Amino acid sequence: MLEKAPVTLWRRWMSKMNEKEKLKKPPLYRFAAFILMLFPYIFLYAGIQVIASFAVEIMEDLTIKEASLSFLSSLGTLSMAVTSAAAGGLGNRYGGKRTVILGLVIMAVSGALYLGNAGSIFGLYIIRSIQGAGTGVVCACLMALVSAWFPKKERGTAQGALGSFYGASISLVTIYALSCRKRGLAWNGAIGQMLLCGGIFLAVLIAFFYKDIEKTYGVSVIDEVIATDVGKSDTSDLMVHKGNTFDKPCNWKESLTFPGFWLIGLLLFFNGACTYGIGFIIPLFFTYCGFNSDSAASIMSVGTLSSIFFALFGGFISDHFFRSRRCEVGLISFGGAMTLFFIIVRIGGLLSAAGLTICYFLAYGMMYLSVGPLWCLPAEMVSSEFASRSMGAALLFSGIGGFVMTNLFGIIIQISGAGTGMYSLVGCMMIVFISFFLIRKVYRI
Q1: Of these four, 8, 83, 183, 369, which has the most CB atoms within 10 Å of its CB?
Q2: Where are the chain's structural domains?
Q3: Which parts of the chain span the membrane according to its record (predicted)?
Q4: What residues are paired with 239 via a beta bridge?
Q5: Which CATH architecture has domain 233-443?
Q6: Inter-residue contact 150 to 30 (CB < 8 Å)
């Protein structure tokens, strides 16, 4: 005990010295960082959805069927998934700012290529893959940067606020597609202009106004520089598993042998199937119910706006009501979503446009109730230093799920109709629900 006394006194003195250098509260710049990341977030998911928004025109011009269209649409998801796995490492090495700018430039290049290609499906496959690669580079860094700038007690709300604008991106690109149709603009011209102009503008915006947290504070997450009581740090690299405390994974070797990594992978695979699949299936299902393209677009543009309110509310209750636990909100979210979408499948054809809009508004909103808590899991189940790479792996699982299942949905719809495709979507939601239940039971997070 006497030998350890000087060491203990030294640590206490150093702790007091370090505490003076720490912030008393999170910096206000985190809100500026959030807004700067929000614009690319809306842009990249509008780009992912844009093929589905021009589905009818593309199928007519290229004389292709639903399975070929789903493959074209999902190619962006696949290349996004593959590049997102590497993007976490790029962000750590070169900084999030440079990595996001690189991804936006790649998306702008794909936009220029769309403008020069109107009749070749194979050319579109290549262009869509390039677009997805840029999307993956942006997305992996973007979500990790939002988590880095917000402390743990605000992280669910921040990710929920970010995710809430996924629905807004769908609505905006749907409205954009309607506007382009009315102006007689060709689908490839509309897509190319959106990606080229948007990518260049956002790259310039990030270059001038965003600053990396590492260069500003010298830390990887803001919790590390906020003053906390001893023993109450939000950056603890320990987790409780069935009553036992253990170290969170801090590298690939530990992650790949960690059962929780694969449980989250299963959850994200089928969540990706739901997220990307719904944008592909719903327009076809509404047409199957007897609505024309304009009516279906109107229902979607209004219904997807529900994500703004539901995602914000889900993140807030995760942070404040459930005290930063994530799975409770996930269970409520997907339990409600699969029930409501099942009802839509059963009675969708009997409803008016107004009635179907209300049902879709509620069902879509319930699915997005958990978007904030869900995307906190990849960062919070590993050490803070490994969070960026973990987010890249999470996007890989999600993107592959979107690619595989969207293609499967296309085959199912071509063989059995859009109604069967919707039942398959509900089945994916059930698997996400079960995954949340298992993670909550085993890891209490």
Answers
A1: 369
A2: 28-221, 233-443
A3: 28-48, 68-88, 100-127, 133-150, 162-179, 185-210, 261-286, 298-317, 329-347, 353-371, 392-415, 421-439
A4: 246
A5: Up-down Bundle (1.20)
A6: yes
